[in-house]
Amino acid sequence: MLQKTISAESIEIRGLSRIFADGSGLHPTDLHLRAGEFISVLGPSGCGKSTLLRCVAGLETPQSGSIQFGDRTVYDSQAQTVVPPRKRGLGMVFQDLALWPHLSAAENVAFTLRVARRPKAEITQRVAEALELVGLAQFSQKMPHQLSGGQQQRVAIARAIVGRPSILLMDEPFSALDAALRLQLRDELRKLTKSLGLTTLYVTHDQAEAMAMSDRIAVMQLGRVRQLSSPEELYLRPADQFVASFIGRCNWLPEPSRGVRPEHVQVHLTSHTVPADSVVLHATVTSCAYTGGLYALTAEVAGAPTSWILEHSERIEPGTEITLAIAEHHVMTVPA
User: Fold this and answer.
1) 3-state DSSP call for residue 32?
2) What does DSSP assign to residue 256?
3) Domains and CATH numbers, the chain
4) pTM
5) What is the dihedral sign for C-alpha 284, 290, 295, 298?
6) pLDDT tens track for 83-118
7) Region for residue 48 given its phi and psi (left: phi exceeds 0; alpha: psi -120 to 50; beta: otherwise)
8) What sign does the dihedral 230-234-240-246 (CA atoms) show?
């Protein structure tokens, strides 16, 4: 079976750069993925995450640095080594899926094997295995337009793994799907990559997606990796203020470089109920909206650089004076 034939490889990226005329792109970057690890690359538009993925795939030629898969060097600027994409042993899922509209699901999955001139019996077996893994065995003869968006996405994933790659690259594959389907597919993909032991590099702008799926997350800004850590480490111990503000929500205290997550702030209508040994601040509610189960508040805190985002179990009308209490151990000191 397919699960027993894939041998994952590590990815070692050193000093990789691909800078465009306007200064955007990928500045010298180091990144290491352990064999079988799922790493998401997360960041705002234009931060260089897709450029990084395309360089790893061989679709962009970097200007410097090196890329190694296991003990194979697929790019080295000094040695002038450039292995073409088809020889890198990769599977890739694109944002637009790129399914052939005139081919059935099975024929789309089989396409790369046919180009590689694999024997017909082998193609039939591998395609059946791949479609079974993504839950589409009964839809093998359907055309892309006869499939739902989620089913089309599964065809693209099956096509990416049918060649038994050691590494899987994915570029925002769920961005066109509705929220409920994204939740379902991200869970399926996580289980699939772990069951196959694939090394996965996953580009996304969706923080919740990255947090739910990844072993580690690389947060990028302006072409550089700001932090590479587990989801928990990123959220609770961000490396700098950009990461703290980009991952989740962060309220900044009047004191420089001190922040707290909204869920760690207690909201009180009177200062008499504030627990002892707390950091205490006074604020004025500026908006209140019901979000289902809780009310989302914004409030102005004297001296704070930005408005605060808070949560409370009851409605508090704008203009109300409130007291905020934060346990000292929940306050993060974050470098600028």
Assistant:
1) strand
2) T
3) 2-240 (3.40.50.300), 249-333 (2.40.50.100)
4) 0.89
5) negative
6) 999 899 899 998 888 889 999 999 999 998 998 899
7) left
8) positive
